[in-house]
Design goal:
By secondary structure, the chain is of the alpha+beta class. It contains six helices and eight strands.
């Protein structure tokens, strides 16, 4: 995956949790944003793809009834001792323990204790699911914006780190704008097209007025 960071809006879409959960897990240190942490009012947390995988694992373990204390131990273990990238691991629940599978089928490594686990998680499968989700929500989309009775094709590209959209109007070179959400991006695009036309029309008129 790309090294692009993911802001809270993208994380909530991809993981399917509430902002309250995400904020709580960050504040308690369960899964922090490793690219950039919030450092005051107006600052943003930025998560890496590995953070997203960890958030999915935590979410599934919580749904299975595993205690936060047990999950914290498992996440800490994986960060410190896993010999493989997180996205290649498998987690297996057995009784009150969490194990990670290794390349050796006969070898299990204990990752936590004192919890009740009733499922097996393929982290690689979760990572593939996330990759598909990232591709889906980051894909540019064509939006038709009408100005002065004419339709202009506008390309809205999501910004997964800060949220919102960057917009370009291919028919009008240099006509680029942005918005914090879809409604604002459409409004800003109309204003950008109006401004582009307002500058272009006098220039065209001057060009026609010049003697040949």
């Amino acid at each position: 995956m790309s090294a692009t960071g993911y802001g809270a809006s993208a994380v909530l879409q991809l993981i399917g949790i509430s902002y309250r959960q995400l904020d709580h897990w960050a504040r308690t240190g369960l899964v922090r944003s490793s690219v950039r942490q919030a450092s005051g009012r107006g600052s943003r947390r930025v998560y890496s793809f590995q953070d997203l995988v960890a958030l999915l694992v935590v979410g599934q373990l919580r749904e299975a009834g595993v205690s936060v204390q047990t999950i914290r131990k498992a996440v800490a273990y994986l960060k410190r001792h896993a010999e493989q990238p997180l996205t290649t691991l498998n987690l297996v629940g057995h009784g009150k323990k969490v194990f990670t599978l290794t390349d050796d089928p006969s070898k299990l490594i204990e990752a936590s204790e004192n919890g009740q686990v009733v499922l097996s998680i393929s982290v690689a499968s979760l990572a593939r699911h996330l990759e598909a989700g990232v591709t889906r929500i980051s894909a540019p989309r064509d939006v038709t914006v009408r100005v002065r009775g004419k339709a202009y094709r506008s390309v809205f590209t999501p910004d997964l780190e800060v949220g919102g959209y960057t917009v370009e109007v291919p028919e009008l070179p240099g006509c680029i704008t942005e918005g914090d959400d879809l409604a604002e991006a459409k409004r800003m695009t109309k204003e950008a097209i109006e401004a582009w036309l307002a500058v272009a029309e006098p220039e065209k008129a001057r060009g026609r007025a010049r003697p040949g």
